[in-house]
Amino acid sequence: MLRALAEDGHEVSLVSFAEASDLVTDLAPLRAVCPAIDLVAAPTARVAPRAEMLDRLRALASPLPYGAWRYRSPEFTQRLERELARRDFDLVICDGVYNFQNLPRKLSAPVLLNKDDVAHVIIRRYLRLEVSRPRRLYGALEARKVERWERRACHSVR
Predict the structure, then answer these.
(1) What pTM did the predictor assign?
(2) Distances (CA, A) of 153 to 9, 30, 96, 98, 112
(3) N or C: which end of the chain has fewer CB atoms below 10 A?
(4) Rounded CA gap, 66 and 143, in Å?
């Protein structure tokens, strides 16, 4: 997408999550397409399965889906605000429904939400095959939360 935008003559800036290994990678090929790059350490999944399970249990008590908790990043928001303050942008492309929450509250540019799947439908399809009753229950609750989250994000873009 970045390459296509640059080839069409658009000046592209990138603020993105990146895995730790990507933070030390040579960015020269990316800079050829996108001169302004700001990579933010990705909120990583907890390595220990028990820790992730505790995070998921905590999210159960919330109206927000687990992914919203996992991908919330004040640092990402601050970096994006800094980039947006540097110049005027015609468009902000938000890649993914959980990243939508990291957009600054007030934007002068319209937002395009790049959403290539419908997560709540994927979860419900998975649940038809899941044999574990606790996982089915958790998944059903999560699917409802994800559906509300996706609908709200999609209705909020302008």
Answers:
(1) 0.84
(2) 29, 29, 10, 9, 11
(3) C
(4) 10
